């Protein structure tokens, strides 16, 4: 019986000492966590897409709290939550957040199967990264889309799919959050985040081929040839030619679409604009009447 009491006493003493040690350690090495971190994290969408430039929503929450302590939230923006979520975060932190114009992913390649025929067959690992590391891919264009769908796999919102007929990725504007995952996944950098624009209207060059005109056209009939006609036509200085490739600055573009009309290869596209009105057909009889009236007025 004495042995049992001694064992119980020893175990009780060990437990008491351990509890005291744990208590002291918890106080000594306690890490303070700002309660605002949990509150901000709860407001964020929880997509953990990395579109904000930080490792997940917890990383973004930490950056927002630190920014608030520093007195500015400039440069911090959640593309998935958008202005509504950022407004809620700013209210919670007692800060003002800068208005950021919403963006959308655009595919800067128009090299469809018809315009950019295959000249080779690839039989390796079916990913854009693997195919790109092996060379130009299955077509003669070493700049265009490879069509394996790395961007589709990277998108957490189901906003991109590969069109079976064209072989090119298409972005669903209603689902796109501009997180940038597709941009980072493309080894040829043909996907770009651009401002959605007024009424979702955008004008941009759907090509990234930097070869000279003849070589670019040989690889793809819809390639930009760097002729400079669009640059000369633009009255706002929005277009520049660099490396045989034209680029339209969305901050300067006024959506006049004059560049679209003069592009000889139709490499410049205008998205979400109303269809142009059909010009009325004037018969020869009507033309003669008009000319007769003009002569009468002159007389």
Describe the structure.
The chain is an alpha+beta fold and 299 residues long. The chain folds into two domains: 36-93, 3-methyladenine DNA Glycosylase II, Chain A, domain 3 (Orthogonal Bundle); 103-271, Alpha-Beta Plaits, CATH 3.30.70.20. The protein has helices at residues 2-28, 35-43, 56-70, 82-93, 128-134, 150-154, 181-185, 213-219, 229-233, 258-262, 284-298; strands spanning 103-107, 160-162, 169-171, 191-195, 202-205, 239-242, 245-248, 268-271. Helix 2 packs across helix 3 and helix 2 runs antiparallel to helix 4 (82-93). The longest helix is centred in the first third of the chain and has 27 residues, at 2-28. It starts with a helix and ends with a helix. 29% of the residues are buried. [4Fe-4S] cluster 3 binds at residues 155, 176, 179, 182. Residues 145-165, 167-196, 215-243, 244-273 form the 4Fe-4S ferredoxin-type domain. It is found in: Cell membrane. The complex is composed of six subunits: RnfA, RnfB, RnfC, RnfD, RnfE and RnfG.
